[in-house]
Amino acid sequence: MNQDALPRCSRLSLAPNLPALLDALGQIPESAWQHHFNTGYYEGEWSGIALITPEDAPMPLAPGGGVPVASSWWQGEAAWHAVLALFQTTIRSARLLRLGAGARIHEHRDPDLGQPGGDLRLHVPLLSPAGVEFLVDDLQVPMQPGECWFIDLSRPHQVHNPGPGGRVHLVLDCQPNAWLLELVRLGLEQTPELLPGNAKHAFAAFAAEVGRDARLAEHLRSINDPQHFCNEVVRLAFDRGLYLGQADVLSAMRRGKRAWSEQWRT
């Protein structure tokens, strides 16, 4: 596979030892988890622990392009060695990332991952409550604990963990060698179809309601303040049994703005 033709995602044919990894995860003290540095990207708890960090990274959880440097804390735990040994390429960065119950990572892109020759981002879910939504291009990536996925996160993506409990992934940035690119290509055959997320269904139902109700449409058109508009959409949708967050409304607004702009491109 050519790196320029990467798919949205691919479920890879790798089999991490989930019970051993969960046992190793349970031995990590709570004090070891550090808050994620991108504080403007999320609400709630998003924290992590670095296993491997590029030497030029400004902080342990941050990206970089330098020589990978392994942390010392996990060297005595066989489970971490075993899972990293599955990857026959250079692992530039390896982090455990935890999203707490009720937390949300807002929609964003990681443009460094979309550059020619840039690293590929892999996810190994360890803990994942049933209601977690990991959306890429507004489609749910149905990752399950013990699997391994490539995801093109240069595309718009967001995550919501309604709980109960935290969501923990082992997240790897790997050099795109021939072995990994072929693994991504072969994984497409076993990748399930991606379906729209719950919020997209709810927003479509609310938009249809607005289209049928002239008074409701006029009320929303009268609101000029974007924050007030978001709050009112969330409230009115909730009154109709539809569950949206402010981030869902803002994401839908951005999609509409992009669609309006792109219609004029030639």
Report on the structure:
This protein has 266 residues and is α+β, with helices and mostly antiparallel strands. It folds into two domains: 3-193, B-lactam Antibiotic, Isopenicillin N Synthase, Chain (Jelly Rolls), CATH 2.60.120; 198-262, no CATH class. The chain is 30% helix and 24% strand. It has helices at 18-26, 78-84, 178-187, 198-212, 214-221, 226-239, 246-262, and strands spanning 9-11, 34-35, 42-43, 46-54, 68-70, 91-99, 104-108, 120-127, 133-136, 139-140, 149-151, 157-160, 167-174, 195-196. Strands 1, 2, 4, 5, 6, 8, 11 and 13 form an eight-stranded antiparallel β-sheet that branches. The protein has a six-stranded antiparallel β-sheet with strand order 3-7-12-9-10-14. β9 (133-136) and β10 (139-140) form a beta hairpin. The longest helix has 17 residues, at 246-262. The mean pLDDT is 90.
By CATH reckoning, the class of the largest domain would read: Mainly Beta
Instruction: Quickly count the helices.
Output: 7
Helix content percent band: 25-40%
Compute the average pLDDT: 90
* Domain module count: 2
Question: How would a crystallographer describe the biggest sheet?
Answer: 8 strands, antiparallel
What's the number of extended β-strand segments? Answer: 14
Q: What is the end-to-end distance?
A: 29 Å
Order of helices and strands: EHEEEEHEEEEEEEEHEHHHH
How much of the sequence lies in strands comes to 15-25%
C-alpha-based Rg, rounded: 20 Å
Give the quaternary arrangement of the chains.
Answer: single chain
